[in-house]
Automatic annotation (TrEMBL):
InterPro entries, alphabetized: Exostosin (IPR004263), Exostosin_GT47 (IPR040911)
Keyword Membrane: yes
Molecular function GO terms recorded: glycosyltransferase activity
Chain ranges passing through the membrane: 26-48
GO cellular component: Golgi membrane
Lipid bilayer topology: Single-pass type II membrane protein
Localization, UniProt: Golgi apparatus membrane
Sequence similarity: Belongs to the glycosyltransferase 47 family.
Domain Exostosin GT47, chain residue ranges per copy: 128-465
Bias-annotated ranges (Basic and acidic residues): 550-565
Protein name (record): Xyloglucan galactosyltransferase MUR3-like
Pfam families named in the record: Exostosin_GT47
Domain of life: Eukaryota
Amino acid sequence: MRRRPLGIAPSELMERGAGKNQNSRLCFLVLLSAFFWILLLCFHFVVLGGQSDDESIKLNPQNGPVDLPVVRKFAPSRMVDAPKVDVRSIREPPQPVDRQPKSTAVPEIQEFPFVKALKTLENKSDPCGGRYIFVHELPSRFNEDMLRECKSLSLWTNMCKFTTNAGLGPPLENVEGVFSDTGWYATNQFAVDVIFSNRMKQYDCLTKDSSIAAAFFVPFYAGFDIARYLWGYNISTRDRASLDLVNWLEKRPEWGIMGGRDHFLVAGRITWDFRRLSEEETDWGNKLLFLPAAKNMSMLVVESSPWNANDFGIPYPTYFHPAKDADVFNWQDRMRKLERKWMFSFAGAPRPDNPKSIRGQIIDQCKKSKVCKLLECDFGESKCHSPSSIMQMFQSSVFCLQPQGDSYTRRSAFDAMLAGCIPVFFHPGSAYTQYTWHLPKNFTRYSVFIPEDDIRKRNISIEERLAQISPEQLKLMQEEVINLIPRLVYADPRSKLETLKDAFDVSVQAIIDKVTKLRKDIIEGHTDDNFIEENSWKYALLEDGQREVGPHEWDPFFSKPKDGDSNDASAEAAKNSWKNEQRDKS
């Protein structure tokens, strides 16, 4: 049996201890080396890598103006840069690979607050892309309060009944069979303010997001406002609401997007009611359209100024306000089938106090002709004040004479075209330079033009002039007039047309196109350095792509009167327009 030894020799113990210590030192060195490399890698990827990422953000313009914001001052050429960052305070990673120079500029398209709105045009799946309208929520003193005080809106006319039915007025009964059974109202010719605003409530692309708005609507009843104070009030009272409005608007963030150049409002009156040139108490109207802020906005009026760029003509309201497409189609078909027994007709009164008026000569010619129908208007009871009598005469006439009224334009022109009657104009300012959004620029397609001097000085025969038009041409012109009807009427604000575009739709789209073009011009750096405001009427006649104007055959019609005379003439026209409202007393 083998015995277990009682002990171990010292030499053997030392040998074994030496082996154990050697293994421990080796493990310690391996762990120390691994820890060092781990620290080095952490430092490289976490600390230096983080700085590189920060730098890449600052160098990448796609991430927007993070540390170098740029403030835009409307005109593309005027830029203000923020102070540059002191790059010496930033720790640079050692010798970065492919480092690009740090850019201090942001792509120009990022500088404009309306870029998002323009981008909606590119979204083909959005039916409202590029068409969104932002409506300002004005305090009620600028609109609804005026309707509550409707008796004060006119010196001679009780406007309360005309503000009913969303501004259309009381319904007209079709006793004589002149109208359709529905859709006809006794609409006041100056009620566009409220009609347009109510139509806007039915617009299919309204938005509360100002960043995507193609334009901004200001529902201020400018026409009703001035109507309250034209007679017997000082200029401070006349200007009060206008000044209050621009003060309110300029405080809104939406105004800052383009300084008001993307804003528009509607005034159902002629432009001269808003263009007082002086601070004399005897001068006419208020100065809304001469306020600096208002000069940036677009104002839609029933008669615009040929010499100013901030107002645009829209149709006077007629008596017809269709609720659906079928109402329009049925009316058009009916106008095509009518037998028209009169070659031409005229509804109106002479202007004996105006030596430049040709109305007296037109009335004389009509009285002498066997093919002319005359409806004389005066201050007494007259069929001129009966919508049924007026429309019946226009429906039985091939041509309807439309000389200047108290100013360039007349509501009668739109009533005539609604009846399928070819208008005869004597001054280009009565339609051709006014309603360029709604009427063809080639006026010979739908109207006849006889210069005033041909009547005033040469006394040409209107009957002979109209007889020269061939039956074939006559048919084409009449069809053109009838086809224009949808874009000349304002649909019932309480309903909606399915496919047709009415006067409201045409006007809103024209404003959107105007603002969109302006925004694109700003981005592309286009400027109108050669624009001459007194030639505004010429610019309105330019075709797409044209920018320059020159001499025009209508220059004699628009030679601007001398200073003083201009204000006197326009103010007198506006006063006469108001005086003749007495004929519509109710």
